Amino acid sequence: MPQQPTPQLDPTQPNALRNYLRNCEIRNPQNPLPFLLLALGLILISLFYSNQYPILHYVPWLILISLLAYLTYRARQTRALEQSVREVFELSITHHPQKALDLACSLLPRLTSAPPAHGQIITLISANLNRLHFYEPASDASSYLIELIHDKHPASAYLRLQRAKSYLHLEQLADADDELRRLRNADLSSVDSALFTACSLYQQIKTHHHQDAANLAPNAVEQLKPLGADAGYAYGLIATAFHHLNNPAEAQAWWRKATLLLPPTAIAYDYPETAPLLKLKPAPSLQQILDAEAHV
After folding, report:
1. What is the 3-state secondary structure (H, E, C) of the chain?
2. Contact (Cβ atoms closer than 8 angstroms) between residue 141 and residue 21
3. Is it the case that residue 6 has pLDDT exceeding 70?
4. Rounded CA gap, 93 and 128, in Å?
5. What is the phi/psi pair of residue 134, to 5°?
6. Is residue 150 part of a domain?
7. Tell me: the pLDDT tens digits for 71-109?
8. Burial, 226: exposed, middle or buried (Cβ in 10 Å; 0-12, 13-18, 19+)?
9. Same domain for 197 and 97?
10. By CB neighbour count within 10 A (0-12 exposed, 13-18 middle, 19+ buried), where does 25 fall?
11. Range of the domain at 230
12. What is the pTM of this model?
């Protein structure tokens, strides 16, 4: 993979992300038709005059070889970019947000003629900015894509949920509520439905509706399953609700579920509302389990 240039995005600067995205907007790909017509014209001319100038017999072959070499180069370039996009995704889901953000920012200027990959990278930029607690630029990234796509687009719900999450962290509770109301009766995929449940839980914690959050507990494990390990954040929010409802047994049980998936400090770092639960006993780590088995 080619060496990555230094990212041009500094999310700590006001409007940095908006300016960055404006400089990396989608551009119309170059139309190959004029070049193909030119090549065809040269081939016809060379064939017409080939009896007078025998050397022209080689022109069609040279054009064909050049065309094949160009197509091979473009195919390799496309594969390299696709591999880089996959790498950003893998870094994102394995919780390496800074590395993912740096690589995404280095890729985006090279994707201005590839709309699908361009949109995927901006979506990942938004998600990783959220993880790094740059919530305002994260919401800007989601808004940028939401303005470009229609409501029926497969990514529309995910982007709105990402934006709702950013709004909740920014204490823009009315804006977050607008986003969640818009999706309440929507036909969501399993992942988007799980994200909706997680965002709803966070909204209820933010607005001190702890009983409403606790009421989601019976079906939470099944509903949040598509989130994988990230379901641990939502479990931590449920534990927080029970903590505020003075139900220590349920708070401990849900905190144990949460810390089986994620470290306690990681949950409290991303969701400060769960910080009071750090005094509870977390689930044992893998090393502690192995040590206990070794002493049996």
Report:
1. CCCCCCCCCCCCCCCHHHHHHHHCCCCCCCCCHHHHHHHHHHHHHHHHCCCCCHHHHHHHHHHHHHHHHHHHHHHHHHHHHHHHHHHHHHHHHCCCHHHHHHHHHHHHHHHCCCHHHHHHHHHHHHHHHHHCCCHHHHHHHHHHHHHHCCCCCCCHHHHHHHHHHHHHHCCCHHHHHHHHHHHCCCCCCHHHHHHHHHHHHHHHHHCCCHHHHHHCHHHHHHHHHHHHHHHHHHHHHHHHHHHHCCCHHHHHHHHHHHHHHCCHHHHHHHCHHHHHHHHCCCCCCHHHHHHHHHCC
2. yes
3. no
4. 10
5. -95, 75
6. no
7. 888 888 888 888 989 999 999 988 899 999 999 988 888
8. middle
9. no
10. exposed
11. 172-296
12. 0.78
Same domain, 4 and 96: yes
Looking at the fold, whether 196 and 106 belong to one and the same domain comes out as no
Number of domains in the chain: 2
Among left, alpha and beta (phi > 0; psi -120 to 50; other), residue 282 is beta
CA distance 116 to 96: 23
> Which amino acid is located at 236 in the chain?
G
